[in-house]
Amino acid sequence: MSTRVRSYSKINLGLAIGPTRPDGFHGLTTLYQTLDLHDLVTVTAKRAGTTRISLTTNHPFVPRDGRNTAWRMVERCLARLGVAAVVEIHIEKRLPVQGGMGAGSANAAAALLALEKELGEALPGVERLKLAAEIGSDVPLFLLGGAVLGLGRGEQVVPMPDLPKTWCVVAVPSVGVSTPAAFKDWDARRAAEAASREPRPKANDSGPQKSVGDVVGGESEEGELGEGHGVTRAVDLTSGPRVDKLQELSLAYSSLSTPTGVSLKGKTEDSRPGTSGIVRDPNPEKKRDLPGESQADAMNDLAENTLLALVRTGIGSDGLQNDFEEVVFPQYPSLRITKRQLMGSDLDGSAIYAALSGSGSALFGLYWSERDAKAAQQRVQSSVDSSDEGIAVQVFLTETLPRSEYWDRMFAE
Ligand SMILES: C[C@@](CO)(OP(=O)(O)O)[C@H](O)COP(=O)(O)OP(=O)(O)OC[C@H]1O[C@@H](n2ccc(N)nc2=O)[C@H](O)[C@@H]1O
Ligand SMILES: Nc1ncnc2c1ncn2[C@@H]1O[C@H](COP(=O)(O)OP(=O)(O)O)[C@@H](O)[C@H]1O
After folding, report:
1. Does residue 12 have its Cβ closer than 6 Å to ligand 2?
2. Which end of the chain, N or C, is surrounded by fewer C-beta atoms within 10 Å?
3. CB neighbours of residue 369 within 10 Å
4. Which fold has domain 3-160?
5. What is the mean pLDDT of the segment spanning 190-207?
6. Measured between alpha carbons, how far is 324 from 322 in angstroms, rounded to an integer?
7. How many CA within 13 A on the CB side of residue 59?
8. In angstroms, what is the span from residue 314 Cα to ligand 2's centroid?
9. Which residues form a coiled coil (predicted)?
10. How many DSSP H helices and E strands does the chain contain?
């Protein structure tokens, strides 16, 4: 027997990059949303004296060894369960590799669920989430599905009330954006900004000078040195108002979700903030005012139409919705154009919202109707066909996938 699982993808509805942490990762506040687009992961497992894992796939760029996320997940899960088995994994890739749609991460989560079903044995919910976080920051979200708030380095996940099922067009240009490289570019940009703000040394000032490069990696020194001193750590510049804005929104949004941590089995789990797992509101004492709206109004909107409320309360307003756009668009200018086409601002049936997903290169647009979505898909496709830039773009028509459907349809027939 074997178990076949739909390995769904995600987009990031909003993403704010925070400071570099001592472990080298960046703080992240993001709102993930799972999509109907998926790969298929099939696992066959038989208990045996020694563990042997093998992996096949239809995609030439997907690793077939211990570098594969699904392989790593299976290996670690078996070790955690204390089970030895012969495991065959097959990944039918339909999603782009390195697209910012979390496809590799989803494959890992899918392999875990399929393996557990094959063995008839499962890890406890919190163990699962911890293991998922070890494989990658993007993996735990796929153990929840639907709309998911991501905190920490993105691995601390909070289930959000589901958005209404919404039409979505995903455009994936044929450029792979490496996630670590995109974070590095972000840091370099912040460091350059900090350097340009630093006051020039006076000619007779021979004391030791602080450089931005010296001071990355900790708390702000503004308090120590006094305001206006001009020495600001590069990392502090990455945690500006955009993060606050998204965090405020997240808190408001999360107040509508379950008051305590929720396990996949419906039991309350250990949900202490700061642990890998499902966390509670990270700052329950904090007042939940939203900019420009009374709290009651905002909550009514959220209850009525969560997606509309998201757009109205901040994520979709002017300015950056995904911090990575600031570094990825200058590198690949055609992506900005594709985003505009997805948005279709001056047209009837323009997008509710459009943005880069994760570190890219996937871009997405959300639409009120299938007709609007199809028109956007057509817009992007025809401009690609007529362009001589040589960047191919795959354009997918799909829908957002609420949590209940995510689980109902996970195990493919
Ligand atoms: C940034 C996101 C947004 O969803 O990018 P996409 O991959 O979806 O584009 C994800 O969090 C990616 O998650 P995932 O792909 O699992 O990344 P990981 O394996 O955990 O980390 C890969 C590398 O990215 C960098 N990294 C990742 C997450 C984070 N919060 N800070 C980081 O600095 C680190 O250099 C790390 O070594
Ligand atoms: N199961 C997998 N599917 C796809 N890529 C994988 C997988 N396991 C490891 N990788 C590696 O991870 C990298 C990022 O893959 P992917 O998850 O598709 O990107 P993203 O997180 O941007 O959506 C790829 O370059 C690939 O070499």
Report:
1. no
2. C
3. 11
4. Ribosomal Protein S5; domain 2 (3.30.230)
5. 71
6. 5
7. 18
8. 31
9. none
10. 14, 10
CA of 180 to the centre of ligand 1 (A): 7
Indicate the range of 30-39, 102-111, 316-325, 393-402 predicted with least confidence.
316-325
For atom 1 of ligand 2, which residue has the closest CA? 104
Identify the residue whose tokens are 């001009």. 230
pLDDT, position 166: 94
Distance from C-alpha of 307 to C-alpha of 304, rounded to nearest angstrom: 9
Residue pointed to by tokens 């703080």: 27
**What is the atom index within ligand 1 of the atom nearest the CA of 28?**
30
Range with the poorest average pLDDT among 121-135, 261-275, 334-348:
261-275
Partners of 32 in the beta sheet? 12, 148
Distance CA 197, CA 229 (A): 11
Q: Which atom of ligand 1 is nearest the CA belonging to 17?
A: 30
* Residue type (1 letter), 6: R
**Average pLDDT rounded to a whole number, residues 211-228:** 29
Distance, in Å, from the CA atom of 126 to the CA atom of 123, rounded to the nearest integer, reads: 8
Which of the residue ranges 94-103, 174-183, 265-274, 373-382 would you say has the lowest mean pLDDT?
265-274
Q: Say if CB 169 and CB 395 are below 8 A apart.
A: yes
Atom of ligand 2 nearest to the CA of 105: 17
Mutate to test the pocket of ligand 1, among 98, 179, 238, 326 (most ligand atoms within 8 A of CB): 179
Cβ of residue 180 lying under 6 Å from some atom of ligand 1: yes
Query: Which H/E stretch holds residue 139?
Result: none
C-alpha span between 220 and 208 (Å, rounded): 19
Task: Provide ipTM, 2 decimals.
Answer: 0.96
What is the average per-residue pLDDT within 271-280?
28
Active site residue 10: yes
Q: Is the pLDDT of residue 247 over 90?
A: no
Q: How confident is the model at residue 264 (pLDDT cuts 50, 70, 90)?
A: very low
Question: What is the pLDDT, as a whole number, of residue 307?
Answer: 59
Mean pLDDT over 156-160 rounds to 91
- Let me know: does 14 contact 246? Beta carbons within 8 Å: yes
Which residue is associated with the tokens 């709206």?
A: 293
Backbone angles phi, psi at 321, to 5 degrees: -100, -30
- % pLDDT > 90, the chain: 56
**Is 337's pLDDT higher than 70?**
yes
